[in-house]
Amino acid sequence: MRSIFTPLVIAATLLTGAVQAQAASYAIDPAHTYVTFEIGHFGTSTNRGRFDKKEGSVQLDRAAKTGKVEIVVDTASINTGFAAFNTHLQSADLFDAAKHPSMKFVADKFTFSGDKVTEVSGTLTLLGKTNPLTLKANNFNCYDNPMVKREVCGGDFEGTLDRTQYGMNYGIDWGFPKTVRLVVQVEAVKQ
What we know:
Layout: H1 2-20, E1 24-28, E2 34-41, E3 45-51, E4 54-61, E5 66-74, E6 78-79, H2 83-90, E7 102-113, E8 116-126, E9 129-145, E10 150-162, E11 179-190
Antiparallel strand pairs: 1-4, 1-11, 2-3, 2-11, 3-6, 4-5, 5-7, 7-8, 8-9, 9-10, 10-11
């Protein structure tokens, strides 16, 4: 009997190795990755800003339908297009960039539809507090980039958070909303 099962064990081992070989590491491309936020302003308009400095990595295994992501954002790099507003956002009233120079999104739960990532769930650490955050994919794709001659994967993701869970309470008494919409465009290059 041993000789009958030996080919099956070898085949299973080879198949497992082939599936594991599809796992890949990717580095966030800062030129094609944007982390932006939107929050209402007295019910009339929407304030928007982005963070210009970010870095991170992605582990992705489309065959096993698993992944991990870590993105670190420099909170002092906030850019709204208006210097005085940037300075206020960096202050202790809001992002407190001097005391908390970064925020971090870490996720290890990827939801797939076929080969496409549809959702990434993990945690966001902001102002020293960590809470769950899920980002839904509006778009996801992997392609062979003709310029860098490597595979690139990425997409457009969005989610909402309650900023008061992180202790960011500025303006709540005046009617500023506590809900913030995050929009993340990300591309990562296979290493």
